[in-house]
Amino acid sequence: MNAVAPLPTGESAAFDRPLSIAVLAMGGQGGGVLTDWIVAAAEHAGWVAQSTSVPGVAQRTGATIYYVEMLPPRGGRHPVLSLMPTPGDVDVVAAAEFMEAGRAMLRGLVTPDRTTLIASTHRSLAVSEKEKPGDGIAASGPVYEASDFAARQSIQFDMQALAERNGSVISAVMFGALAGSGVLPFSRETYEAAIREGGKGVEPSLRAFAAGFDRAARPPEPVPVLEAEALPPPVPTSVGVPQLDALLARVHGEFPTSVRPMVFAGVKRLTDYQDVAYAGEYLDRLRGLLALDSAHGGEAAGYAFTDAAAKYLAVAMAYDDVIRVADLKTRASRFARIDQEVGKRDGQLLYMTEFMHPRMEEVIGTMPKGLGLWLEGQPRLVRLLDRVVNRGRRVKTGHVSWFLSLNLVAALRPARRRLLRHLREGAHIANWLALAERIVAQDYALAVEVLACRRLVKGYSDTHARGESKFDRVLAAAPGLVGKPDGAGWLRRLRTAALADEQGEALEGALKTLEGAFEA
């Protein structure tokens, strides 16, 4: 170890108890490396340091807690240091994801009289957030607000973005933020020496460290507040492709200004999903709905019915099927995006393993209408074939055989409109629109909510089946709400309940509440 300059007079006396640091990080964020750097910096300064860790659970249900205690030596005696952080007794909490900072506050690790909170404001969604059928993302605002009074000092910024810009990982930026906070009595050179001793990725780590150091040393910025929803960008009049320009001319010529951005988004989605002709079919259907909207006071309502139809009809027509899944998984843009997300460097190889679990229903859906209907009429044969098909598969898209297999499935896109799945989706869409069209003449707001219920249907395979079942149950209540007080509000509450959980328990309760309310 290099020679260490003696501590300034009185500095040892100022540390009559260990300094404690808790690092909360997930797999791949370099929490262990950060902990090693902290220990190395302390030992470089002549301190005694000890680190421990308690592993978290995989797949983002909990972060690993790394814990460091350090103390200057006292008369040659080695101190006894703790193995775990104690609530109310932590000097620094460093969280590599924003909600982990919130968890640290809930655990009592962050206190206003002692703790410096260093947290990255980016989000890595937890399983509990991803598994909800609707928007299950936890709000970041309460964590921002709590950190104002929960911590003695708070340093918060997007450390992940800063790491990516400097070609490193978030642990290097967090180390820089720790150094820049001034909590530990070590020089910047001491921290940098710890990184150099690691010997791997030194230059990118030093760049990210410097960026984190400089950012932490700035005066604190105001807490971000939610701004009003930004206005959508203007719809272009031309993209230089005659077929697409013809669609744009229809968007501008046939639809009111207020709904054009949503119509344009639908056209883009369906052109990418199928082709220009399919997007033209979308505009044809939408034009009929606009005429109905205008006939029933749509202009006074800002054409809310047409706007909702533009959004959810595009979603419905771009249903997820095995062709779409295969297409998305084999696109060059997807491979490029994932390379960037994981920070793949030139000369490195990245292999992805996809988990797929097709059912016989998906296989039948990719058959021509006649063949698919015939096979559905042979239940014993379907059950026999399902035993072969219905099992999980790990698909390695980096291997030629699997990539070509998926690419072959994606090549069925031109034939999609002749397949059984398209026949079924078309019938379902027609029934949904017919219900909205019947209701709009009697209850405009309720008809808008009927259109919005389409968001319940998503995904494919079992996910699609569950969503469609909820969709059908919610819409079955719509005719009975026509003319009822707050009928639109009731349908909206049913939709919200349907999105609350995968099993549909909240929806069951909401339907019983609705039944009781109108019986009373």
Q: What's the number of extended β-strand segments?
A: 8
> Low-confidence spans: pLDDT under 50, at least 5 residues?
1-13, 225-229
Rg measurement, Å = 29 Å
Major sheet attributes: 6 strands, mixed
> What helical percentage do the residues reach?
40-55%
Strand order of the largest sheet: 2-3-1-4-5-6
- What distance lies between the first and last C-alpha atoms, to the nearest angstrom? 81 Å
What is the overall pLDDT average? Answer: 86
Instruction: Give the DSSP E fraction (strand runs of 2 or more residues).
Output: 5-15%
Which descriptor suits the 3D outline?
A: elongated
Q: What structural class results from the helix and strand content? A: alpha/beta
The DSSP helix count reads 24
Description of the molecule:
This protein is α/β, with parallel strands linked by helices. It is 53% helix and 8% strand. It has helices at 11-14, 31-44, 98-106, 127-130, 141-150, 159-165, 170-181, 188-198, 202-217, 242-254, 260-273, 276-295, 304-317, 322-329, 332-342, 360-365, 369-376, 379-389, 400-410, 420-440, 444-452, 461-476, 487-498, 505-519, and strands at 19-25, 48-54, 64-71, 92-95, 116-120, 153-157, 353-356, 393-396. The strands form two sheets. The protein has a six-stranded mixed β-sheet with strand order 2-3-1-4-5-6, with helices on both faces. It has a two-stranded antiparallel ribbon with strand order 7-8. Strand 4, helix 3 (98-106) and strand 5 (116-120) form a beta-alpha-beta unit. Helix 7 (170-181) crosses helix 9 (202-217), helix 8 packs antiparallel against helix 9 and helix 20 runs antiparallel to helix 21. Residues 1-13 and 225-229 have low confidence and may be disordered.
